[in-house]
UniProtKB/TrEMBL annotation:
Protein name: Transcriptional regulator, LysR family
UniProt GO cellular component terms: cytosol
Residue span(s) of domain HTH lysR-type: 6-63
Pfam families: HTH_1, LysR_substrate
Top-level taxon: Bacteria
Family the entry assigns: Belongs to the LysR transcriptional regulatory family.
Keywords attached to this entry: DNA-binding, Transcription, Transcription regulation
GO molecular function: DNA binding; DNA-binding transcription factor activity
């Protein structure tokens, strides 16, 4: 297949039109006249031999070809931005940014400790954090919006493009307030735990599913929770102020445990372990900032004894 001569400015012009939704706003954004911008897009379409933009009374919209090209164009823009940032850093400049995607347990668990280290040592670095579910984070990683992801293993159709490196084992177990009556006696059986009052994450969240599975393996119905929520901060406060029990990753309540508000009831049967991964695109060279961030994560994990 013959090589196609594309110019970065044409890709920039195309993305401006798509993201602004009109030629007028896009022209202002890239500091061109509308006729000059139209000419640039027309040349891009001629080189690609495909129509990328449709004009409508409501504005402009990408065609099917335009939508397909858009993801690649954004990835190209991101790669160029990373390349420039890396070159500047290699030249001794200390400014820069890193974009990381994290799962909920990482966001409220280990990440605050990492951020404290990064901000203290490098106050000029900007860290862009996106919290979300694995499928959303994988999409952001593959299109170049995220430099890497810390969370569950990213196993999808495009997982061949992703490198998953184990970081640490996240143990999930029973969380109770300090001084909870359940801590004074013998370790309760699974059947006794089924009768307790709980605050849990909602179904079909993975953590809730794994919790329910523990009881089903013992041929018991899972407890019907007194409260269920997707708010981790509310859950931690509710556990600390009541006799409700919960089932959470231990790292998510580390600060509360250190402050003496919450504690972990170690139970031989009521727990679940999962590996947290550092995931990045195989075909992208990690920037020095990304490598530094990953190194800091590993150092913090080692110090916390995870």
């Amino acid at each position: 297949m013959a090589a196609i001569d594309l110019h970065i400015r044409q890709i920039t012009h195309f993305l401006a039109i798509v993201e602004e939704g009109s030629f007028g706003k896009a022209a202002q954004r890239v500091h061109l006249t509308q006729p000059a911008l139209s000419k640039s897009i027309r040349q891009l379409e001629e080189r690609l031999q495909a129509r990328l933009i449709d004009r409508t009374p409501q504005g402009v919209t990408p065609t099917g070809f335009g939508l397909a090209f858009m993801d690649h164009a954004r990835a190209i823009r991101t790669e160029i931005s990373h390349a420039v940032a890396q070159l500047r850093e290699m030249q001794g400049l200390r400014t820069g940014s890193v974009s990381v995607g994290v799962g909920p347990s990482v966001a409220s668990g280990v990440l605050p400790y990492v951020m404290a280290r990064i901000v203290s040592a490098h106050p000029e670095i900007t860290v862009n954090v996106t919290e979300g579910l694995s499928d959303i984070l994988a999409k952001g990683l593959l299109c170049g919006e995220l430099d890497f992801v810390i969370g569950a293993r990213l196993d999808f159709e495009s997982s061949a493009e992703i490198s998953n490196e184990p970081l640490y084992v996240d143990r999930c177990g029973i969380v109770a307030r300090a001084g909870h009556p359940i801590l004074n006696g013998p370790i309760p059986s699974i059947s006794e735990l089924a009768k307790r009052s709980w605050i849990l994450t909602r179904r079909p969240e993975t953590l809730r599913t794994k919790f329910d599975d523990i009881f089903r393996r013992h041929e018991l119905d899972p407890p019907s929770p007194s409260a269920q929520t997707n708010s981790i901060s509310f859950m931690r406060d509710a556990i600390a102020e009541t006799d409700l029990l919960s089932f959470l990753p231990q790292i998510m309540v580390l600060r509360e445990r250190m402050a003496g508000r919450l504690t972990i009831l170690e139970h031989p049967d009521c727990y679940w372990e999962r590996t947290v991964f550092f995931s990045h695109r195989k075909r992208r060279t990690l920037s020095p900032l990304s490598r530094h961030f990953a190194k800091t994560v590993r150092a913090v994990i080692a110090e916390l004894g995870i």
